[in-house]
Amino acid sequence: MKKLAIAALMTTFALAGCSTMNLDDKRTMVVEGQAMDVKVVNIPSLKVELAPHKAVCDVQTATGEMIKAECLQFRQTFQRNYTTFNGDIQGFTYEPGYRYVLDVRQEAVADEAAGVVKPVWYLNEVISKTAE
Asked: Taking a C-beta distance cutoff of 8 angstroms, is the pair 85, 71 a contact?
């Protein structure tokens, strides 16, 4: 029975790996003012600080067109500069005028239609919420 459970678990991992094969799992993002190529991976716990106001950023539409939008600004708690985040944090509602420290989970989600792996953030915990 134990061997069957282990075999099922390994098959699940193998199939999950196959579902993202041949998809672009690399992203270019600005970190501390420098453009860097990063790989989208699952991260169980990541502490981030959200700025009290959104910033204007470029967002790609489903048709591939770039448009201006308002995006959250985040940084890891040890970083000096903020980076724009053009997605939502699942389970979290942002209120302007507050500085947040959050514990989030990142999951690499396959978008087969676009041929990419996208990072999706989920709220683990609101660590602090401070009025600015």
From this structure: yes
